[in-house]
Each structure stands twice: as C-alpha cells, then as structure tokens.
Write a structure and sequence with these properties.
- With 168 residues, the protein is an all-alpha fold.
- It has a domain at 1-93: Orthogonal Bundle (Rna Polymerase Sigma Factor, Chain: A).
- Helix content is 77%, strand content 0%.
- It has 7 helices and no strands.
- It has helices at 6-31, 34-48, 60-90, 100-119, 122-132, 138-145, 149-167.
- Helix 5 (122-132) packs across helix 6 (138-145).
- The two termini are 42 Å apart.
- It holds the Pfam family Sigma70_r2.
- Residues 111-163 form the RNA polymerase sigma factor 70 region 4 type domain.
- GO terms for molecular function: DNA binding; sigma factor activity.
- Residues 15-80 form the RNA polymerase sigma-70 region domain.
- This is Sigma-70 family RNA polymerase sigma factor.
C-alpha cells in the first residue's frame, strides 16, 4: 500500500503527464518562444508541488492556467526590470560598468525589492517611495497622501519591517 505522503506526488505526476504538453503550448502561444514557454511550464508545476490535496483540483487546465498566469506575470515583470537595468548600464562608461557577477547580484536584489514593494499595500508603498526616492519628510508625505502624520509613521514602520524581513 502506498504511503500517504507519496499519494500527492503521484497525483502531481499524473497532472504533469496529462497536461504538461498542453500547458507548454498555451504558454508558447502567449510568449512566441518555445524555450521560455518550457521554463515557465516547469515553473508552474514546481509552484503546484505545494498543493496539499491535488485530488481536489476539479478542472486541471483551468487551475494550471491560473497558476501559469501568475508565473507569467512575475516573469514579465522580471524581464522588464532586467531590461531597464541593462539600459541604464548601457549608458555607463565601460570602466564603470559592473562585472557580470555584480550585474547578476544587482538584478536579483532589484527583483527582491520589486516583490517586496508589490506586497505592500498601495498607501504604504507610496509613502515609502516618497520618503526613500523623493526624500520627502514625513509631514510632507502626510500632506501629499491626505493622511495623518501618525499614519505615515505607521506606514513607514510597516515598510521597514518588510525590508528587514527581506534581509533576514
């Protein structure tokens, strides 16, 4: 008799066998690139490995499409961030350009910051960006956002806690 822990993995394996080709084709039609589609299809299945009860998935293709859309959105955001960084690097004189290793570290850090900022509520994110990028004082941020100074302080504390969690 199979162990209870191997049952979900068997269900995922069946889901993979039955639908991987379809999902990869679906992604290929959206991306126009078979290699990226293969990577994102694999990422989609990696993401669903954590599903507690794969048998509860009633419509596998709808479920896979939903998960794949999230993976695709994250991938597109990462690509846009990378393009923007590389465009900024292209403007630097050659001696000041970072090494490929440094570029990879910076890109990964930028991606982590982007994910952290995206997880913040909009008002917290806006207050944080006004403070950190625009150098605004808390009183000015409060006036800009139409909230109290206490709210801005609370927003900033929340943003800094998220930043510290990123570092840990």
């Amino acid at each position: 008799m199979p162990s209870s822990s191997s049952l979900p993995h068997r269900e995922i394996a069946t889901l993979y066998t039955d639908h991987h080709g379809w999902l990869q084709g679906w992604l290929h039609r959206r991306l126009g690139n078979a290699f990226d589609a293969a990577d994102l299809a694999q990422d989609t299945f990696v993401r669903i490995l954590g599903v507690r009860d794969p048998q509860a998935i009633e419509t596998p293709r709808a479920y896979l499409t939903t998960v794949a859309k999230g993976v695709l959105v994250n991938w597109c955001r990462r690509q846009a961030l990378e393009r923007a960084y590389l465009e900024a690097l292209a403007l630097l004189p050659a001696p000041e350009a970072p090494s490929p290793e440094q570029r990879a570290v910076v890109l990964e850090t930028l991606h982590e910051i982007d994910v952290m900022l995206d997880a913040l509520p909009p008002s917290v994110r806006r207050a944080f960006l006004l403070s950190q990028l625009d150098g605004m004082k808390y009183e000015d941020i409060a006036a800009e956002l139409g909230v109290s100074l206490t709210s801005v302080k609370r927003y900033m504390a929340q943003a800094f806690r998220r930043c510290l969690a990123l570092v840990d």
